[in-house]
Amino acid sequence: MASHKIKIAARVRPRLEHEIDDEGIQVTHTSGAPSCISVPNPRDVSQIFNFPLSSCYDQNSTQEDIFERDVRPLIDVVYSGVTVTIFAYGVTSSGKTHTMQGTKAQPGVIPRVVEAMFEQKASLQRSSVELSVSYMEIYKDEVYDLLVNRETAPKLPVRENDAGQVFVANLTSFPIKSMEEFDRIYSQASRHRSVGATNLNRTSSRSHAVLTLEVMMTDSTAQRTLTGKMNLVDLAGSENNKLTGNDSTRMAESAAINKSLSVLGQVVHALNQGASRIPYRNSKLTRILQDALGGSSVGLLICNIAPGTKFRQDTLNTLNFAVRTKNVENRPVINERDNRPQPKPHFAAVQPAPAKLAPAVLHAIPVHASGSSAVATTTSNIAAVAGPSRGQRPSKVPRPSAVGPGLLPPLYSRPSSRPSSRPSIPEKMEPVTQLTDKEIDERIARAVEAEVARRLKEREEQERVEQARLQQEKENLALQEKQAVENVKAEPKLPSGVLSPLLKRHRDLDEELRARLAELEQKYERGNKELQLADVLSPASRKKTGRAYVALARAHSEKGDLDVALELYRKAETYVPDNVKLRERVLEIEWAVKNGKDFVPSPKKQRKVRGKKRKVAVERICEEATSLGQSSIGQSSLDDGEDGERGFGDGEGATIKVKEEYEGQTTIHETPAKRTRC
Ligand SMILES: Nc1ncnc2c1ncn2[C@@H]1O[C@H](COP(=O)(O)OP(=O)(O)OP(=O)(O)O)[C@@H](O)[C@H]1O
């Protein structure tokens, strides 16, 4: 499919009264070359920027010049069923409204287009042609209908139909039969447009205005309808608030205007970059102009330029935008509808249907647009709304909903992204067009019968399985009950009085066990305390404490007080848990206590006491001894010479002083601390 680049025209308006113009902006026409507009750099006037554009109009150009050269050729394009969008772009006060709307004396593009369309209509013999008009403005990023009372006009939503076409919902469209009728409607609607006075323009447009002329051509012989549209867009001008002297209201308007124009620039930039995402949705303006920018319409951009020196930078901005826009490619489509009666599609025989069935068949017909651009051919059924049509898009900008060009089969429509509620058909089924109504009805009857039979069988099978399951459950329950009864019967009965002694013994055991547990708990608690204490002592202190306990235990065992001795040995064990000899001693005494035997400790070996004496944990051990309730004991000597390997101590000839209290008497035991013998 042929692509169409947006055509760019630039028009310099005449100097206004009190405007300083250095005549720096020049338009040159050279035969055989594109016309060119030259603008001096505002920071260095010796530097000139040249912008070659296909159409450049100087200050002396007329409304007629522009219309005849660039606009009239597009009337044919509209009448071929294509959407055309012409938009005027430029800084505020650059002459956009003058170019598009003009005055009574100098009518602009809009009235001239309407006139030309009526002329074209009159020239068409075979077709019935209907013209209609709609008019809206985008004010502060909201859409308003200009054909209704502006005071009560609601904000209109911008929507997208199933075919991916953007449109303004609930926008009024008036049929127009004559130029006079249009003038009446248009002049009234123009009064509704938001206009305000700024320092730069007494009648500055505060909104973007979009006037759409739709022409619907029905050829009854060929049984087809072509729908062409002409969107005429008068953009609000970008504003420099320093120059406009805007108040707060104007500032808010200005911000909305500048933002939407900025998005327009971003859209153009993204299109030129071939970006995967084009930010159309970032403003209502670009959303509505989506079809004109990288879409399926033919476009003409008229860049209006103000000659005043104060606008020089804006002029450069406008022309830079023009240069970028001229690279944007559209793929225009013809909007045609086939009115021939179509075989009624049957739900059981059609391919998965689109969300909305087209009321007519769509065909691809080659069309040659007049003017500079050849219009490619494709088909689309376009909703009769003010929004631009959308069809095949430029390959540079991939979009998921693009419709394939030209070669569409009959009954083709854009596949819906929504899941179809219609039943799918078997592949082997013949196309509906080859079946008579009777055949289709027979097929349906057969299919329904088969389906009913299948469902009945399925239900019967389900019921059978359910009944079998219930029966099985019932049987299982009965079996369980029977077994329970038999178990009760089988239990042996004891003669009376047999259980009494057993129960008594059980109670005795219980008490014994409880006492034993209490004792164990006590021991555990004590042991725990000892362990905690042993944990915080240094290894040397642990040994010394252990040795002191051993000495004390030995003294008690010699006295025959084995219980206390055992307790003290056990304490000693918590400080020196790895001492094997100590462990043996504990076991020996435990055995003696348990069996009521005497314990004879091994004879102690006397050692030389040398070096200074050490005092180890005496106070604490005394407390222990007191708490154990032992009697006063005399000096206890400890034998460390029996087995150096198995004994413990630090090898020095230290002594341990142990103070004990019993029945008011205090006794101090002094024992050698080195290699304490257990
Ligand atoms: N080609 C022209 N010949 C004579 N006067 C012109 C021409 N173009 C613009 N003017 C005058 O310049 C002034 C500003 O023009 P216009 O209102 O069309 O600018 P604009 O770009 O639409 O401004 P805004 O963006 O603020 O609406 C108007 O008084 C208009 O009549």
UniProtKB/TrEMBL annotation:
Residues 5-328 form the Kinesin motor domain. Keywords: ATP-binding, Coiled coil, Microtubule, Motor protein, Nucleotide-binding, TPR repeat. GO terms for molecular function: ATP binding; microtubule binding; microtubule motor activity. ATP binds at residues 90-97. InterPro entries: Kinesin-like_fam, Kinesin_motor_CS, Kinesin_motor_dom, Kinesin_motor_dom_sf, P-loop_NTPase, TPR-like_helical_dom_sf, TPR_rpt. Residues 405-424, 627-638 have a biased composition (Low complexity). Residues 385-437, 627-678 are annotated as: Disordered. Residues 425-437 have a biased composition (Basic and acidic residues). One of its GO terms (biological process) is mitotic spindle organization. GO terms for cellular component: microtubule; microtubule associated complex. TPR repeats lie at residues 546-579. Residues 453-537 form a coiled coil. Belongs to the TRAFAC class myosin-kinesin ATPase superfamily. Kinesin family. This is Kinesin-like protein. The lineage of its organism: Eukaryota, Fungi, Dikarya, Basidiomycota, Agaricomycotina.
